Amino acid sequence: xxxxxxxxxxxxxxxxxxxxxxxxxxxxxxxxxxxxxxxxxxxxxxxxxxxxxxxxxxxxxxxxxxxxxxxxxxxxxxxxxxxxxxxx
Amino acid sequence: xxxxxxxxxxxxxxxxxxxxxxxxxxxxxxxxxxxxxxxxxxxxxxxxxxxxxxxxxxxxxxxxxxxxxxxxxxxxxxxxxxxxxxxxxxxxxxxxxxxxxxxxxxxxxxxxxxxxxxxxxxxxxxxxxxxxxxxxxxxxxxxxxxxxxxxxxxxxxxxxxxxxxxxxxxxxxxxxxxxxxxxxxxxxxxxxxxxxxxxxxxxxxxxxxxxxxxxxxxxxxxxxxxxxxxxxxxxxxxxxxxxxxxxxxxxxxxxxxxxxxxxxxxxxxxxxxxxxxxxxxxxxxxxxxxxxxxxxxxxxxxxxxxxxxxxxxxxxxxxxxxxxxxxxxxxxxxxxxxxxxxxxxxxxxxxxxxxxxxxxxxxxxxxxxxxxxxxxxxxxxxxxxxxxxxxxxxxxxxxxxxx
Lengths: 88, 403
Known about the structure:
- The complex is a heterodimer of chains A (88) and B (403).
- Chain A has one domain: ACP-like (Non-ribosomal Peptide Synthetase Peptidyl Carrier Protein, Chain A), CATH 1.10.1200.10.
- In chain A, 57% of the residues lie in helices and 0% in strands.
- Chain A has 4 helices and no strands.
- The longest helix of chain A has 15 residues, at 37-51.
- Chain A is globular and about 30 Å long.
- Chain B has 403 residues and is an alpha/beta fold.
- In chain B, strands 5-4-6-7-1-8-14-13-9-10 form a 10-stranded mixed sheet, with helices on both faces.
Protein backbone atom coordinates (compact mmCIF):
# COMPACT_ATOMS: atom_id res chain seq x y z
CA UNK A 1 0.00 0.00 0.00
CA UNK A 2 1.39 3.42 -0.85
CA UNK A 3 1.77 5.96 1.94
CA UNK A 4 -1.24 8.23 2.57
CA UNK A 5 0.14 11.23 0.66
CA UNK A 6 0.94 9.13 -2.40
CA UNK A 7 -2.53 7.60 -2.14
CA UNK A 8 -4.10 11.04 -2.14
CA UNK A 9 -2.10 12.08 -5.22
CA UNK A 10 -3.08 8.89 -7.07
CA UNK A 11 -6.76 9.33 -6.12
CA UNK A 12 -6.64 12.90 -7.31
CA UNK A 13 -5.20 11.82 -10.67
CA UNK A 14 -7.86 9.10 -11.03
CA UNK A 15 -10.68 11.52 -10.16
CA UNK A 16 -9.44 14.15 -12.62
CA UNK A 17 -8.94 11.62 -15.42
CA UNK A 18 -12.31 10.00 -14.62
CA UNK A 19 -10.72 6.55 -14.39
CA UNK A 20 -10.99 3.96 -11.64
CA UNK A 21 -8.47 4.49 -8.81
CA UNK A 22 -7.03 0.95 -9.01
CA UNK A 23 -5.73 1.71 -12.53
CA UNK A 24 -3.41 4.43 -11.20
CA UNK A 25 -0.14 3.38 -9.57
CA UNK A 26 3.01 5.31 -8.86
CA UNK A 27 4.63 3.48 -11.79
CA UNK A 28 1.86 4.14 -14.33
CA UNK A 29 3.00 6.21 -17.29
CA UNK A 30 1.12 9.28 -18.46
CA UNK A 31 0.69 7.57 -21.79
CA UNK A 32 -1.02 4.45 -20.46
CA UNK A 33 -3.41 6.62 -18.42
CA UNK A 34 -4.15 8.74 -21.50
CA UNK A 35 -2.81 11.91 -19.88
CA UNK A 36 -1.97 14.59 -22.47
CA UNK A 37 -0.55 18.04 -21.75
CA UNK A 38 -3.91 19.69 -21.03
CA UNK A 39 -4.90 16.76 -18.75
CA UNK A 40 -1.58 17.24 -16.95
CA UNK A 41 -2.44 20.87 -16.31
CA UNK A 42 -5.88 19.87 -15.02
CA UNK A 43 -4.24 17.38 -12.64
CA UNK A 44 -1.82 20.01 -11.33
CA UNK A 45 -4.82 22.29 -10.66
CA UNK A 46 -6.61 19.49 -8.77
CA UNK A 47 -3.46 18.78 -6.74
CA UNK A 48 -3.02 22.46 -5.89
CA UNK A 49 -6.56 22.47 -4.51
CA UNK A 50 -6.23 19.10 -2.77
CA UNK A 51 -3.07 20.08 -0.87
CA UNK A 52 -3.58 23.85 -0.80
CA UNK A 53 -0.20 24.44 -2.44
CA UNK A 54 1.08 26.36 -5.46
CA UNK A 55 3.05 24.38 -8.03
CA UNK A 56 5.40 26.77 -9.86
CA UNK A 57 5.41 26.56 -13.68
CA UNK A 58 9.13 25.79 -13.74
CA UNK A 59 8.68 22.81 -11.42
CA UNK A 60 5.60 21.68 -13.34
CA UNK A 61 7.60 21.54 -16.58
CA UNK A 62 10.11 19.08 -15.08
CA UNK A 63 7.47 16.46 -14.24
CA UNK A 64 7.73 13.50 -16.60
CA UNK A 65 6.14 10.71 -14.54
CA UNK A 66 3.66 10.09 -11.76
CA UNK A 67 6.54 9.26 -9.43
CA UNK A 68 8.05 12.71 -10.09
CA UNK A 69 4.63 14.23 -9.52
CA UNK A 70 4.32 12.51 -6.12
CA UNK A 71 7.84 13.54 -5.15
CA UNK A 72 7.20 17.13 -6.17
CA UNK A 73 3.99 17.27 -4.13
CA UNK A 74 5.78 15.72 -1.12
CA UNK A 75 8.39 18.44 -1.29
CA UNK A 76 5.88 21.28 -1.61
CA UNK A 77 3.70 19.93 1.21
CA UNK A 78 6.80 19.51 3.41
CA UNK A 79 7.82 23.11 2.71
CA UNK A 80 4.36 24.24 3.68
CA UNK A 81 4.07 22.22 6.88
CA UNK A 82 6.57 19.51 7.86
CA UNK A 83 4.00 17.42 9.79
CA UNK A 84 1.69 17.03 6.79
CA UNK A 85 4.47 15.60 4.65
CA UNK A 86 3.90 12.34 6.56
CA UNK A 87 0.37 12.35 5.17
CA UNK A 88 -1.36 13.02 8.51
CA UNK B 1 -14.34 37.71 -59.32
CA UNK B 2 -13.02 41.13 -58.46
CA UNK B 3 -9.52 41.90 -57.23
CA UNK B 4 -9.51 43.44 -53.76
CA UNK B 5 -7.32 46.32 -52.57
CA UNK B 6 -6.49 47.43 -49.05
CA UNK B 7 -6.87 51.19 -49.09
CA UNK B 8 -6.98 51.99 -45.38
CA UNK B 9 -5.30 50.74 -42.20
CA UNK B 10 -5.69 51.68 -38.56
CA UNK B 11 -4.05 50.27 -35.42
CA UNK B 12 -3.99 50.84 -31.70
CA UNK B 13 -1.71 48.54 -29.69
CA UNK B 14 1.12 48.38 -27.19
CA UNK B 15 3.29 49.78 -29.97
CA UNK B 16 1.38 53.05 -30.19
CA UNK B 17 -1.95 54.62 -30.99
CA UNK B 18 -1.75 54.68 -34.79
CA UNK B 19 -0.35 52.72 -37.73
CA UNK B 20 2.68 54.97 -38.05
CA UNK B 21 3.83 54.33 -34.47
CA UNK B 22 3.02 50.63 -34.89
CA UNK B 23 5.21 50.33 -37.96
CA UNK B 24 8.03 52.37 -36.52
CA UNK B 25 8.30 49.98 -33.54
CA UNK B 26 8.12 46.89 -35.77
CA UNK B 27 10.78 48.23 -38.07
CA UNK B 28 13.08 48.94 -35.15
CA UNK B 29 12.35 45.58 -33.50
CA UNK B 30 11.13 47.41 -30.41
CA UNK B 31 8.82 45.48 -28.11
CA UNK B 32 5.81 46.95 -26.31
CA UNK B 33 5.92 44.23 -23.64
CA UNK B 34 6.28 45.64 -20.12
CA UNK B 35 5.17 45.06 -16.51
CA UNK B 36 1.36 45.20 -16.34
CA UNK B 37 -0.04 48.49 -15.10
CA UNK B 38 -3.82 48.04 -15.29
CA UNK B 39 -4.05 45.04 -12.91
CA UNK B 40 -2.62 44.11 -9.51
CA UNK B 41 0.52 42.17 -10.49
CA UNK B 42 1.05 40.87 -6.95
CA UNK B 43 -1.81 38.43 -7.50
CA UNK B 44 -0.27 36.93 -10.64
CA UNK B 45 2.51 34.45 -11.33
CA UNK B 46 3.41 36.34 -14.53
CA UNK B 47 4.08 40.05 -14.56
CA UNK B 48 4.33 41.21 -18.17
CA UNK B 49 1.92 42.04 -20.96
CA UNK B 50 1.55 44.25 -24.02
CA UNK B 51 -0.86 46.97 -22.85
CA UNK B 52 -1.90 50.08 -24.73
CA UNK B 53 0.20 52.45 -22.64
CA UNK B 54 -1.33 55.63 -21.26
CA UNK B 55 -4.75 54.89 -22.71
CA UNK B 56 -7.53 57.20 -21.59
CA UNK B 57 -10.99 56.65 -23.12
CA UNK B 58 -11.93 60.32 -22.87
CA UNK B 59 -9.10 61.24 -25.23
CA UNK B 60 -11.15 59.38 -27.85
CA UNK B 61 -14.81 59.45 -26.75
CA UNK B 62 -17.22 61.81 -25.03
CA UNK B 63 -17.52 60.68 -21.40
CA UNK B 64 -21.13 59.59 -21.71
CA UNK B 65 -20.33 57.69 -24.90
CA UNK B 66 -17.30 56.03 -23.29
CA UNK B 67 -19.53 54.69 -20.49
CA UNK B 68 -21.41 52.65 -23.08
CA UNK B 69 -18.36 51.05 -24.73
CA UNK B 70 -15.99 48.46 -23.28
CA UNK B 71 -12.27 48.94 -23.81
CA UNK B 72 -12.17 46.24 -26.53
CA UNK B 73 -14.87 47.94 -28.61
CA UNK B 74 -13.23 51.34 -28.09
CA UNK B 75 -10.07 49.91 -29.65
CA UNK B 76 -12.13 48.68 -32.59
CA UNK B 77 -13.75 52.07 -33.17
CA UNK B 78 -10.43 53.95 -32.84
CA UNK B 79 -8.77 51.64 -35.38
CA UNK B 80 -11.76 51.92 -37.76
CA UNK B 81 -11.67 55.74 -37.60
CA UNK B 82 -7.99 55.75 -38.54
CA UNK B 83 -8.49 53.17 -41.32
CA UNK B 84 -11.36 55.16 -42.87
CA UNK B 85 -9.41 58.42 -42.62
CA UNK B 86 -6.38 56.68 -44.15
CA UNK B 87 -8.47 55.32 -47.05
CA UNK B 88 -9.35 58.84 -48.17
CA UNK B 89 -12.99 57.79 -48.49
CA UNK B 90 -15.49 60.44 -47.57
CA UNK B 91 -17.03 59.05 -44.34
CA UNK B 92 -20.41 60.32 -45.49
CA UNK B 93 -20.14 58.00 -48.51
CA UNK B 94 -20.25 54.96 -46.22
CA UNK B 95 -23.74 55.43 -44.79
CA UNK B 96 -25.37 52.87 -47.00
CA UNK B 97 -26.01 49.18 -47.48
CA UNK B 98 -23.06 48.53 -49.77
CA UNK B 99 -20.56 48.86 -46.92
CA UNK B 100 -19.99 45.80 -44.72
CA UNK B 101 -18.38 45.52 -41.29
CA UNK B 102 -16.88 42.22 -40.19
CA UNK B 103 -14.91 42.16 -36.96
CA UNK B 104 -13.22 39.52 -34.85
CA UNK B 105 -13.08 39.20 -31.10
CA UNK B 106 -12.27 36.25 -28.89
CA UNK B 107 -13.70 37.34 -25.55
CA UNK B 108 -15.54 40.59 -26.23
CA UNK B 109 -16.01 42.91 -23.30
CA UNK B 110 -14.93 40.45 -20.63
CA UNK B 111 -13.33 43.29 -18.62
CA UNK B 112 -16.83 44.76 -18.13
CA UNK B 113 -18.18 41.35 -17.20
CA UNK B 114 -15.34 40.76 -14.74
CA UNK B 115 -16.03 44.14 -13.14
CA UNK B 116 -19.72 43.24 -12.78
CA UNK B 117 -18.89 39.91 -11.17
CA UNK B 118 -16.51 41.58 -8.70
CA UNK B 119 -19.46 43.69 -7.55
CA UNK B 120 -21.67 40.63 -7.30
CA UNK B 121 -19.41 37.92 -5.87
CA UNK B 122 -16.68 39.84 -4.09
CA UNK B 123 -18.36 43.00 -2.87
CA UNK B 124 -21.69 41.20 -2.40
CA UNK B 125 -23.58 44.18 -3.80
CA UNK B 126 -26.38 42.12 -5.25
CA UNK B 127 -26.59 44.07 -8.49
CA UNK B 128 -24.60 44.40 -11.68
CA UNK B 129 -24.37 47.53 -13.85
CA UNK B 130 -27.18 47.65 -16.43
CA UNK B 131 -24.71 48.33 -19.27
CA UNK B 132 -22.80 45.10 -18.61
CA UNK B 133 -24.60 43.19 -21.37
CA UNK B 134 -24.26 45.97 -23.95
CA UNK B 135 -20.58 46.39 -23.10
CA UNK B 136 -19.76 42.68 -23.00
CA UNK B 137 -21.29 41.40 -26.24
CA UNK B 138 -18.53 40.47 -28.71
CA UNK B 139 -20.30 42.26 -31.57
CA UNK B 140 -20.18 45.62 -29.75
CA UNK B 141 -17.14 46.70 -31.78
CA UNK B 142 -18.94 46.15 -35.09
CA UNK B 143 -22.10 47.78 -33.72
CA UNK B 144 -20.36 50.95 -32.55
CA UNK B 145 -18.50 51.29 -35.87
CA UNK B 146 -21.81 50.97 -37.74
CA UNK B 147 -23.46 53.57 -35.48
CA UNK B 148 -20.62 56.05 -35.72
CA UNK B 149 -20.48 55.96 -39.54
CA UNK B 150 -24.12 55.17 -40.28
CA UNK B 151 -23.16 51.96 -42.07
CA UNK B 152 -26.29 49.89 -42.72
CA UNK B 153 -24.93 46.94 -44.73
CA UNK B 154 -24.12 43.45 -43.47
CA UNK B 155 -22.31 43.71 -40.13
CA UNK B 156 -21.27 40.89 -37.83
CA UNK B 157 -18.56 39.50 -35.60
CA UNK B 158 -16.66 36.25 -35.77
CA UNK B 159 -15.30 34.55 -32.68
CA UNK B 160 -12.77 31.80 -33.29
CA UNK B 161 -10.32 32.45 -30.46
CA UNK B 162 -6.90 33.45 -31.81
CA UNK B 163 -8.07 33.15 -35.43
CA UNK B 164 -11.06 35.50 -35.04
CA UNK B 165 -9.81 38.46 -37.01
CA UNK B 166 -8.20 36.38 -39.76
CA UNK B 167 -11.57 34.70 -40.25
CA UNK B 168 -13.23 38.15 -40.23
CA UNK B 169 -10.82 39.67 -42.76
CA UNK B 170 -11.11 36.57 -44.94
CA UNK B 171 -14.90 36.77 -45.00
CA UNK B 172 -14.77 40.49 -45.76
CA UNK B 173 -12.33 39.80 -48.59
CA UNK B 174 -14.62 37.18 -50.11
CA UNK B 175 -17.65 39.47 -49.71
CA UNK B 176 -15.97 42.30 -51.64
CA UNK B 177 -14.45 39.89 -54.17
CA UNK B 178 -17.87 38.39 -54.91
CA UNK B 179 -19.67 41.72 -55.22
CA UNK B 180 -21.48 41.48 -51.88
CA UNK B 181 -20.15 44.89 -50.81
CA UNK B 182 -18.32 47.85 -52.31
CA UNK B 183 -16.41 48.68 -49.13
CA UNK B 184 -15.50 46.51 -46.14
CA UNK B 185 -14.35 47.67 -42.73
CA UNK B 186 -12.73 44.61 -41.20
CA UNK B 187 -10.30 43.54 -38.52
CA UNK B 188 -10.56 42.86 -34.83
CA UNK B 189 -10.10 44.16 -31.33
CA UNK B 190 -9.47 42.73 -27.90
CA UNK B 191 -8.95 43.85 -24.30
CA UNK B 192 -7.64 40.96 -22.24
CA UNK B 193 -6.41 42.46 -19.00
CA UNK B 194 -8.97 41.58 -16.32
CA UNK B 195 -7.94 39.64 -13.22
CA UNK B 196 -10.41 36.81 -13.85
CA UNK B 197 -9.23 36.26 -17.40
CA UNK B 198 -5.53 36.55 -16.50
CA UNK B 199 -5.95 33.97 -13.73
CA UNK B 200 -7.52 31.61 -16.28
CA UNK B 201 -4.47 32.06 -18.54
CA UNK B 202 -2.17 31.59 -15.57
CA UNK B 203 -3.82 28.23 -14.86
CA UNK B 204 -3.06 27.06 -18.41
CA UNK B 205 0.66 27.53 -17.71
CA UNK B 206 1.42 28.93 -21.16
CA UNK B 207 2.25 32.54 -20.23
CA UNK B 208 5.90 33.49 -20.08
CA UNK B 209 7.25 34.77 -16.77
CA UNK B 210 9.68 36.78 -18.89
CA UNK B 211 8.96 37.87 -22.46
CA UNK B 212 7.78 36.42 -25.76
CA UNK B 213 10.65 34.70 -27.63
CA UNK B 214 9.09 32.95 -30.63
CA UNK B 215 11.12 30.14 -32.25
CA UNK B 216 13.91 30.60 -29.67
CA UNK B 217 15.02 27.40 -27.96
CA UNK B 218 14.76 29.11 -24.57
CA UNK B 219 11.20 30.36 -25.21
CA UNK B 220 8.98 30.25 -22.13
CA UNK B 221 5.52 30.91 -23.52
CA UNK B 222 3.29 33.65 -24.82
CA UNK B 223 2.67 37.21 -23.68
CA UNK B 224 -0.87 38.55 -23.83
CA UNK B 225 -1.53 41.79 -25.68
CA UNK B 226 -4.46 44.09 -26.33
CA UNK B 227 -5.51 46.48 -29.07
CA UNK B 228 -7.37 46.76 -32.31
CA UNK B 229 -6.62 46.91 -36.01
CA UNK B 230 -8.92 47.56 -38.96
CA UNK B 231 -8.58 47.53 -42.74
CA UNK B 232 -10.62 49.18 -45.45
CA UNK B 233 -11.11 46.86 -48.42
CA UNK B 234 -12.44 47.91 -51.83
CA UNK B 235 -12.53 46.42 -55.32
CA UNK B 236 -9.17 47.22 -56.92
CA UNK B 237 -10.78 48.82 -59.99
CA UNK B 238 -12.85 51.18 -57.90
CA UNK B 239 -9.84 52.12 -55.75
CA UNK B 240 -7.77 52.84 -58.87
CA UNK B 241 -10.58 54.83 -60.43
CA UNK B 242 -10.81 57.16 -57.46
CA UNK B 243 -7.02 57.50 -57.29
CA UNK B 244 -6.76 55.91 -53.87
CA UNK B 245 -3.40 55.04 -52.33
CA UNK B 246 -3.27 51.23 -52.32
CA UNK B 247 -1.34 49.59 -49.49
CA UNK B 248 -1.49 46.07 -50.97
CA UNK B 249 -3.90 43.55 -52.40
CA UNK B 250 -5.50 40.77 -50.44
CA UNK B 251 -5.40 37.72 -52.68
CA UNK B 252 -6.21 34.56 -50.75
CA UNK B 253 -8.03 33.17 -47.76
CA UNK B 254 -7.96 29.62 -46.41
CA UNK B 255 -9.53 27.91 -43.43
CA UNK B 256 -9.39 24.50 -41.81
CA UNK B 257 -10.37 22.66 -38.65
CA UNK B 258 -7.91 20.32 -36.93
CA UNK B 259 -10.69 18.04 -35.67
CA UNK B 260 -8.09 16.98 -33.12
CA UNK B 261 -7.55 18.37 -29.65
CA UNK B 262 -9.16 21.38 -27.99
CA UNK B 263 -5.80 23.03 -27.18
CA UNK B 264 -2.98 21.11 -28.88
CA UNK B 265 -2.10 22.35 -32.37
CA UNK B 266 -1.90 20.07 -35.38
CA UNK B 267 0.63 20.16 -38.22
CA UNK B 268 -1.93 18.83 -40.69
CA UNK B 269 -4.61 21.36 -39.76
CA UNK B 270 -2.21 24.30 -40.09
CA UNK B 271 -0.85 22.89 -43.33
CA UNK B 272 -4.31 22.55 -44.87
CA UNK B 273 -5.21 26.15 -44.02
CA UNK B 274 -2.01 27.52 -45.61
CA UNK B 275 -2.50 25.40 -48.74
CA UNK B 276 -6.09 26.47 -48.97
CA UNK B 277 -5.17 30.19 -48.82
CA UNK B 278 -2.55 29.74 -51.56
CA UNK B 279 -4.99 27.79 -53.71
CA UNK B 280 -7.76 30.36 -53.18
CA UNK B 281 -5.51 33.11 -54.48
CA UNK B 282 -3.71 31.06 -57.13
CA UNK B 283 -0.49 31.99 -55.32
CA UNK B 284 2.55 29.98 -56.44
CA UNK B 285 4.18 28.79 -53.18
CA UNK B 286 7.69 29.57 -54.48
CA UNK B 287 6.75 33.23 -54.91
CA UNK B 288 5.90 33.69 -51.24
CA UNK B 289 8.72 35.68 -49.68
CA UNK B 290 7.45 36.38 -46.17
CA UNK B 291 5.21 34.71 -43.62
CA UNK B 292 3.92 36.54 -40.58
CA UNK B 293 3.79 33.49 -38.34
CA UNK B 294 1.26 32.66 -35.67
CA UNK B 295 4.46 32.26 -33.58
CA UNK B 296 3.07 32.35 -30.04
CA UNK B 297 6.32 31.16 -28.40
CA UNK B 298 4.59 28.29 -26.64
CA UNK B 299 6.46 24.98 -26.53
CA UNK B 300 3.95 23.37 -28.90
CA UNK B 301 3.01 26.07 -31.43
CA UNK B 302 6.39 27.00 -32.83
CA UNK B 303 7.69 23.54 -33.87
CA UNK B 304 4.20 22.61 -35.13
CA UNK B 305 4.03 25.74 -37.28
CA UNK B 306 7.58 25.15 -38.55
CA UNK B 307 6.63 21.62 -39.61
CA UNK B 308 3.47 22.89 -41.35
CA UNK B 309 5.43 25.53 -43.28
CA UNK B 310 8.02 22.92 -44.30
CA UNK B 311 5.27 20.57 -45.45
CA UNK B 312 3.62 23.23 -47.64
CA UNK B 313 6.66 24.99 -49.06
CA UNK B 314 9.09 22.05 -49.16
CA UNK B 315 12.52 23.26 -50.39
CA UNK B 316 11.29 26.83 -50.74
CA UNK B 317 10.84 26.90 -46.92
CA UNK B 318 14.60 27.50 -46.66
CA UNK B 319 14.35 30.60 -48.83
CA UNK B 320 11.36 32.11 -47.05
CA UNK B 321 11.64 34.73 -44.34
CA UNK B 322 9.33 34.29 -41.35
CA UNK B 323 8.75 36.37 -38.27
CA UNK B 324 6.43 36.54 -35.31
CA UNK B 325 5.54 40.13 -34.53
CA UNK B 326 3.77 38.85 -31.37
CA UNK B 327 7.25 39.25 -29.89
CA UNK B 328 6.53 43.01 -30.00
CA UNK B 329 2.74 43.59 -29.84
CA UNK B 330 1.99 40.49 -27.75
CA UNK B 331 -0.74 37.98 -28.45
CA UNK B 332 -3.93 40.00 -28.77
CA UNK B 333 -6.08 36.87 -29.30
CA UNK B 334 -9.08 37.93 -31.42
CA UNK B 335 -7.20 41.02 -32.63
CA UNK B 336 -3.96 39.15 -33.39
CA UNK B 337 -4.74 38.42 -37.04
CA UNK B 338 -5.70 42.05 -37.68
CA UNK B 339 -2.55 43.47 -36.06
CA UNK B 340 -0.48 40.98 -38.05
CA UNK B 341 -2.32 41.74 -41.28
CA UNK B 342 -1.29 45.38 -40.88
CA UNK B 343 2.31 44.31 -40.16
CA UNK B 344 2.31 42.11 -43.27
CA UNK B 345 0.72 44.74 -45.53
CA UNK B 346 3.21 47.41 -44.44
CA UNK B 347 6.10 44.95 -44.86
CA UNK B 348 5.06 44.44 -48.50
CA UNK B 349 4.54 48.14 -49.13
CA UNK B 350 7.71 49.37 -47.49
CA UNK B 351 9.99 46.52 -48.57
CA UNK B 352 11.06 45.88 -44.98
CA UNK B 353 10.38 42.66 -43.09
CA UNK B 354 9.77 43.07 -39.34
CA UNK B 355 11.86 40.82 -37.11
CA UNK B 356 11.16 38.25 -34.43
CA UNK B 357 12.22 40.18 -31.32
CA UNK B 358 13.58 38.59 -28.16
CA UNK B 359 15.29 35.81 -30.08
CA UNK B 360 18.32 34.28 -28.34
CA UNK B 361 18.97 30.69 -29.27
CA UNK B 362 18.35 28.59 -32.38
CA UNK B 363 16.00 25.65 -31.94
CA UNK B 364 16.57 22.69 -34.30
CA UNK B 365 12.79 22.10 -34.23
CA UNK B 366 12.18 25.66 -35.52
CA UNK B 367 14.89 25.76 -38.18
CA UNK B 368 13.50 28.47 -40.47
CA UNK B 369 14.86 31.93 -41.27
CA UNK B 370 12.97 33.78 -38.53
CA UNK B 371 14.54 37.25 -39.03
CA UNK B 372 16.14 37.39 -35.57
CA UNK B 373 15.87 40.71 -33.74
CA UNK B 374 16.55 43.08 -36.64
CA UNK B 375 14.31 44.00 -39.54
CA UNK B 376 15.52 43.33 -43.03
CA UNK B 377 15.11 45.05 -46.40
CA UNK B 378 13.48 42.74 -48.90
CA UNK B 379 11.12 43.29 -51.79
CA UNK B 380 8.55 40.57 -51.53
CA UNK B 381 5.78 39.87 -54.03
CA UNK B 382 3.54 37.62 -51.92
CA UNK B 383 3.18 37.28 -48.15
CA UNK B 384 1.10 35.03 -45.93
CA UNK B 385 -0.25 35.62 -42.41
CA UNK B 386 -1.10 32.63 -40.22
CA UNK B 387 -3.58 32.34 -37.37
CA UNK B 388 -4.10 29.03 -35.59
CA UNK B 389 -6.57 28.98 -32.73
CA UNK B 390 -7.31 26.98 -29.62
CA UNK B 391 -10.13 24.75 -30.72
CA UNK B 392 -8.17 23.90 -33.86
CA UNK B 393 -9.85 26.47 -36.12
CA UNK B 394 -7.25 27.89 -38.50
CA UNK B 395 -7.37 30.88 -40.85
CA UNK B 396 -4.66 32.05 -43.22
CA UNK B 397 -4.55 35.16 -45.42
CA UNK B 398 -2.39 35.83 -48.49
CA UNK B 399 -1.40 39.34 -49.60
CA UNK B 400 0.29 40.74 -52.68
CA UNK B 401 2.41 43.84 -53.05
CA UNK B 402 0.78 46.49 -55.19
CA UNK B 403 3.29 47.59 -57.79
